[in-house]
Structures are given as structure tokens and as C-alpha cells.
């Protein structure tokens, strides 16, 4: 990829990459053909490959005639380009139909790793997504021969608009469970016992080599447990774009939004020509099972593989706290980790499902959807015509949240401890939630049952530096409990260094649509609004403004 040399976006401007998003009928796995949002005609979309420390311009065309679009660069901090985070109703207006938008992306040095891009509008990310790899400017700290991407998705019976409308309906019309787990766009297996004999993705490998497998959790709902037949030594070397010290495991748990790199050394002389990778959903009322294939050698013509008649392995049930307190940063990437004594404020985000009226998810009693506010929060701040900056006084009186703006304020220089607290729903149920933070990555402090106890958790950390993450699991410790009972927490530590409007949300698409999102405004007026001065900012402040090009093709 060629480095962009200009920011003058006239008719001579050539972006570093182009993504064209369309809606067209497609048959996926064993499901009937339905309208599917695709990127450059496929799902997943094409791999984007960047180098840390280099600025790129990615042009995203919305070729859909009736739907809005954004593109979010999941896991990358967009601090240098606040209108390019891709979050509608938070950082930017969506791209109108038949328009395009040029996203500026500059991965920071030290953020080489595995990421992905996806739409942040409605349910589009179930298919409108693709891998994004940031390469090390000086080479990775681990040696391997080749790498492979394992892009994990799921798919559903209904189309996007039907599912989205049902989730906002009163009473709730649930999306249904995932009908298939896909690897690199292909998948066969079973859903709730019903078999699907669709073709499988093949990962072609050679004997006696070390591979870096980049696992990307791009599912909408599925929390996947997976392992590889005959290959029970997986060495984790990266989590969410951060290199770790090597950690050996025989299986992985990957929630939507999470990414891991593992090293796998293939057999010196394989007794079999292929081995199955088996994936299963966890924390759902039914099990969806999928497969992919590790294919030793590349026979001509390529072999076509189908799912086995029955599972080839017994995968573990949910491992609560998987890799918590186990991963450590690679020595080359250790950072200035703040101690408990450095923490200036602890904020608890209490998650609850409310069923009085429409079924919604709330954080500290408030939900966040694409209909609130009426214009993107950052746009309102620039225009001073709608929601203003959240009040720190109101927030301090309401456990960190300003109820007027429904936003969490934070000051540059603060060291926050953010605790996400799971509670029993109005109807008594409990769910597990993968929580994702936009902006700067946080140090993950672990998880546990009940309520958070900082003193006890510091003993578990034992003075060691935890890894930085951007997506971690809020587990459930029972299927049901009393309404409002606190049962399960996840704790983060964050240095507030990047001014902006950032989302923190559950990454299950259904839960996001039902309101399980929160906005954080980090920094004061001069810090947030000084990043893009007038008049350069004007084109961003109107839906379809002049920074959104009209596609004449």
C-alpha cells in the first residue's frame, strides 16, 4: 500500500484503499438467499494491511441507495482524526446513500497487531466487515514462517432490517440464534441439532512450519469456543493488538470484538491430510457448531471439504475468566502502568435489562441508541446547538454519568478505574457481554463474581502488569438471579490522554441496538474542539456536508 502524500481531496486525490459497500442478495451457508451488506462484493471484505506510524486515507463508498453507512476501525485509536471513528450519533454523521467519505487512519507506533473494520450502523456489521492488519515498522518480536487469518462471523435467518426492527419493537421480536458460524465466509455444521452440509473454509499449511494464526471475532452474537483437532499447543502472542509474553493453551474463547494471535507449529510429517477446527457457541440457549479445515499441502485442484458427521472434539464449557490474570505484556511493550494509588476516580457502569415498555439495555439507568441524540454528539459540541459538554458536578452526583446528556465526562490526566457491573434483569435473567472501548486501550484488571473489591483484586494481580485490551468479557455466573442482583464484574484501568467523544459498549449487535452503549466525553472544550479548527470543521457538521463526496459513478 502506498502512503498517502496529500490531504487535498480534489479530483486528483488517490486514496490508499477503496471500500465499496453494497446490499445485494447472497446465499450464505445453508440459508436461503437474502439481502446482505457486502464490502467490495464479498463478506468478509478485503484485507487491509497498514504499517504503524504511517498515515493512510481509506475511501468508503456507500453504494446502497436507501441506507446510511459508517466504517469503524475496531481497536484503533482515532485520536488524530476525531470525525473518523465511524460511530454515528457519537463522532460523525453517517455516510448518506450514494456518497463516500475519506477516513484518515494513522496507527500509532506500538499498535501493530490484529484488528478489523466494520459498519457501525444498525445490524450491518453482521456481514459488512473485514480484517485489518497493522504491521510492525521494525518487524514483530516473534519469528514465524507464514501467517493465516481466521475471520469468524455468524449469520441469521432474517435480513438486517427485519432483525433491527424487531429488536426495537414493543414487544421485543428477538433475532433468533445464530444459524451458522462462518470462518472466512464459509461454514457448515449444525444449529440446535439441525445439520448444515455446506462447504468449509480451508487453511492450507505445510508440514514443519510455524504459523501465526490471527483469530478475529467478528460475530454479531456468538461467543465462540474453538480448538483444532490434533493440534493442542496454541501459543498466544497477541491479544487485541498488544503483544504478550507467550502463553500456551489448547483452546480459545473468542467473543465478538476480540482478537488473538497464536503461534502453531505444524506436524513434521502429518499422518492425515487434513484436520478439523471446531467452533461452538457458548452462553446461548442452544448450541451452534461450525468447522473449518487445516489442510496439509495444496493439492491440485484444491480439495472441497464438508463438515464431519459428528463433532471431532469435546470442547470445554465456558471458562470463566479465560486468560484473566494470565497474560502479561511482552517486555518490549511494557507501558507506564498506573498503580492502584494512582487512581483518581472509580466509576461503575451498571448494566441492566429493563422490560417495562420496550425491552432495552441500560447503563446506570440510561440507554443510548441511534435516535438519541438527534445529531452526533461531537457535532453538537462543535455547533453548540444541542447537547452540551456533560457536567462533572452532575456526573459526580450520579456515579460518573451526567443524566442530562447521558454521557460520562472525564478530564485529561485522570487515571480512571472503570468497573462494569452485571445485574439480574427485570425478569431475573443474566447475559454475558463482551465490552469494547473506543479510543485508547485500557489495562484489563480481570473479572469476578458478585461486586468488585479493589483490595482483593490487587492481591490477585500480585504487582504484575496486566495487558492492554480493548474488548473483554463481562461474564455471568448463573442463568438467573434476582432483579437487580449484582452478579459479575469486569474492571479496567485507563489513563485519560486522548480528548474526544468515545463509545464504550457491548459488542453484541443485538444488545447495541437495544441500547447497550455509553458515550464518554474526554477532555474540556478547548481540548476536544481544538483538534479540528474552523473553517476545516464546517464540512463535518452537516449530514451530507461537503466532506461527504457525491458518487457520480
TrEMBL record:
Coiled-coil region(s): none
Keywords tagged on the record? Copper, Metal-binding, Oxidoreductase
The keyword Oxidoreductase appears for this protein: yes
Q: In the record, which residues are listed under signal peptide? A: none
Pfam families in the cross-refs? Cu-oxidase, Cu-oxidase_2, Cu-oxidase_3
| All residue ranges annotated as the Plastocyanin-like domain in the record | 21-136, 147-297, 397-523
Q: Does the keyword Oxidoreductase apply?
A: yes
| Top-level taxon of origin | Eukaryota
Q: Which GO terms describe its molecular function?
A: copper ion binding; oxidoreductase activity
Q: Which family does it belong to?
A: Belongs to the multicopper oxidase family.
UniProt name for this protein: Related to laccase
The scientific name of the source species is Phialocephala subalpina
